[in-house]
Design goal:
Blueprint lengths: L2 H11 L1 H4 L12 H11 L7 E5 L6 H13 L7 E5 L6 H12 L7 E2 L5 E2 L7 E6 L6 H13 L4 E7 L7 H4 L2 E5 L5 H15 L5 H11 L3 H12 L6 H9 L2 H13 L3 H14 L4 H14 L5 H16 L4 H16 L11
Parallel strand pairs: 1-6, 1-7, 2-5, 5-6
Antiparallel strand pairs: 3-4
Length: 347
């Protein structure tokens, strides 16, 4: 069985991929952004580098893929490089993978009546989609800026980030910036209802609302919870609650509570399971940990946040993730007995 066949089957199994929009006009919400992009695409040779910024799960990566499909046509996958910068944050990734891909010039694919070469698709460039670029080190971003300059005739970059402030100004100034916003509840609920109807799954309106409240408008996360809940037979309040209990966010919350209660070994075992069995990234771990700590209503939260900031910085400069996350839990255990908790129950 070919890799393309396997990928197709996996996409059909995963609703988040099966129902990912294929064209710009199918993107949920973000109407102003969609209108602007459609106007830019009308003049493909003049399209600038793009920078998409906004919260997780609001369509940034999907929009980037749709732009690539519409600009490059049938062979878009061949001429598109999609990278997740949080996996490889350093300058090595920029110099090797990005620079090598950007250096390739698309060759002419035909001749006219005079024997002159021309490109049938009339788009003499390739596209590099760089996701979670705000996780890149400043040195890597500086190197990327040079590559953007040097390869502007052969390559267009679509840079994606959650936090625009983490992208260096020289990169920002070379891109058209689009700010994506969180989805309104009605937009998310309508999309989830559409999926339920397509998959012939029974659902309760209240259950879909519960999904929205939990994910805070993250459509990707909402679809994953919906699919998990549907596996119980119906998308009900009870089944959504069970599905949420299986999510990475909930598991990170359990780890944080165990650490603050001084149960280091239990917290570490669950951490390793989450990292290697579930494949959770260190970036997502800290994102969920921040949300959990904030929700715990700790009186002297400044002490915990100071520790979190220190380990988040260490990871951002390339420190070993397992070692740093384990050390972070050890610090939580150490200070746990000195923290005044208004409310916290043992998992």
């Amino acid at each position: 069985m070919s890799s393309n066949t396997i990928n197709t089957k996996l996409s059909n199994l995963m609703w988040v991929e099966k129902y990912r929009p294929k064209r710009i006009e199918q993107i949920v919400n973000q109407k102003d952004i969609i209108t602007s992009l459609k106007n830019l695409i009308k003049k493909p040779d003049e399209i600038p580098h793009l920078l998409f910024t906004g919260p997780a799960g609001v369509g940034k990566t999907t929009t980037a893929l749709c732009v690539s499909m519409e600009l490059l046509g049938e062979g878009w996958k061949r001429d598109t490089l999609e990278l997740n910068a949080s996996d490889e944050r350093g300058i090595k990734m920029v110099r090797e993978r990005v620079k090598e891909f950007a250096a390739v010039i698309k060759l002419p694919s035909g001749t006219n009546e005079k024997g002159e070469y021309f490109s049938k698709d009339e788009k003499p460039y390739r596209i590099i989609i760089l996701d979670e670029a705000d996780e890149m080190t400043s040195e890597a971003q500086t190197a990327l800026r040079r590559i953007i300059e040097d390869s502007s005739k052969t390559t267009r970059f679509i840079i994606i980030c959650n936090y625009l402030s983490q992208i260096i100004e020289p990169i920002q100034s070379r891109c058209a910036i689009f700010h994506f916003t969180r989805f309104e509840e009605n937009d998310v609920l309508e999309y989830l209802k559409m999926i339920c109807n397509q998959e012939k799954v029974d659902f309760q309106e209240e259950a879909l609302s519960k999904i929205y409240r939990y994910t805070e408008g993250d459509l990707r996360h909402s679809i994953n919870i919906l699919q998990t809940a549907s596996g119980y037979g119906q998308v009900s309040i009870k089944n959504v609650t069970s599905a949420i209990g299986l999510s990475g966010k909930t598991k990170v919350g359990e780890i944080i509570r165990l650490a603050l209660l001084g149960k280091f070994n239990d917290a570490r075992i669950r951490l390793l399971e989450l990292l290697y069995a579930y494949g959770l990234s260190d970036t997502d771990f800290f994102k969920y940990a921040y949300q959990e700590i904030k929700d715990l209503d700790i009186k002297n939260i400044d002490e915990v946040m100071s520790i979190m900031a220190e380990y988040d910085y260490r990871l951002s400069v390339g420190a070993h993730s397992e070692i740093q996350l384990t050390a972070f839990l050890a610090q939580l255990c150490k200070i746990g007995s000195n923290i005044k908790l208004k409310k916290m129950t043992q998992t």
